[in-house]
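Morning, I've got a small favour to ask if you have a moment. It would help a lot if you went through both lines with me. Thanks so much in advance, here it is.

***
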Amino acid sequence: MVTEINSPLSSPVTPAEAWQRLRDGNERFVSGHSRHPNQDAPRRSSLVNHQDPFAVIFGCSDSRLAAEIIFDLGLGDVFVVRTAGQVTDDAVLGSLEYSVGVLGVPLIVVLGHDSCGAVTAAKHTVDTGSMPAGHVRTLVERITPSVLAAQRNGLTEVNDMVVEHTRQTAERLVESSRMISDAVASGSTAVIGLSYRLAEGRADLVSSIGDLGGGNPGAPGLAAG
């Protein structure tokens, strides 16, 4: 059942409520019933002097992974950070800490996707020993530990490596940032990993850190409403 939730500016939300909003929006997108909320002139005007997003989405820069579209959201709904292969650096950590410490978002989402070019490049390097040129090398170097971890677990497909990289990235965010780890420990913020399927448009939950409330929030396959 899809929960009716309007503007996040109306009241604070818990990590579980934020996750439910994303699930509902993704389900509308998958089913072809997107509402395109909060995309009109009044909404734009209401955000001139403030923002109050209910989640931060740290995802891959892939052009097919536009957060506001795949989760059926609009202006001011989510704070978005993107790098190729959702690779973390100091600027990413600073942006995420800003979203938690200043904007008070209750949910951090690490968003990976199948057929990821950056993960594919890292797998190619591990398989062949050939490193790419330029700054792409930095991306590959940061993704390689996830590729190696997947291989140690007997996983050889790129999409399995994407899932492993998404999980490891979520863990590293909490390990690398005292601000984020404290927010998770206090229950004010949770960190989840999602793996997006390009063909279906569905974002599957593959990991969770913190309290999402009820049942087993860390189990995969819970993206549907």
Summary: The CA atoms of residues 11 and 52 lie 10 Å apart. Residues 1-11, 215-225 have pLDDT under 50 and may be disordered.
